[in-house]
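Page 47, continued from p. 46.
Same chain as before, 170 aa.
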Amino acid sequence: KKVAVTDASVLILGENGTGKELVAREIHRSSDRAKESMIKVDLGALPESLFESELFGHVKGAFTDAKEDRAGRFEIADGGSLFLDEIGNLSIMMQMKLLSVLQNRWVNRVGSSKPVPFDVRLISATNRPLYDMVAAQTFRQDLIYRINTVEIELPPLRERREDIPLLVDH
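Result:
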């Protein structure tokens, strides 16, 4: 409830099945952005070859199958929230591209040099040990600073047995 009323970027950490997406949806639902969409991107299932097109969009003719202009997830989520699930699965190259967009607050669609500004509330989640990954140089420390203005660590369900019936009912 405290973080929902802010516009702070949120990083949700926790094991699989702890309810990270439910927490993200509740943050969005309780925020001033609730009237707009919350767009989810499962970065763990997104091939690196589609990363820029999916997140930043593309223009017609940018590549073989680009038959029309298409907005990316940042543009689609404009005014609302963007939920980047499994952010710990990003390669260093994709992390650099994401960091640049988050710093600039605009995207360039693939095949275009025209910047498109966006206004999103960023919520990210992962089950990966990001701080260990920073030490191993497989996750960028400057990206962590951009995505975790507020960090929420969800304890495993074995430590929150009272939540299991609630999650089952949901």
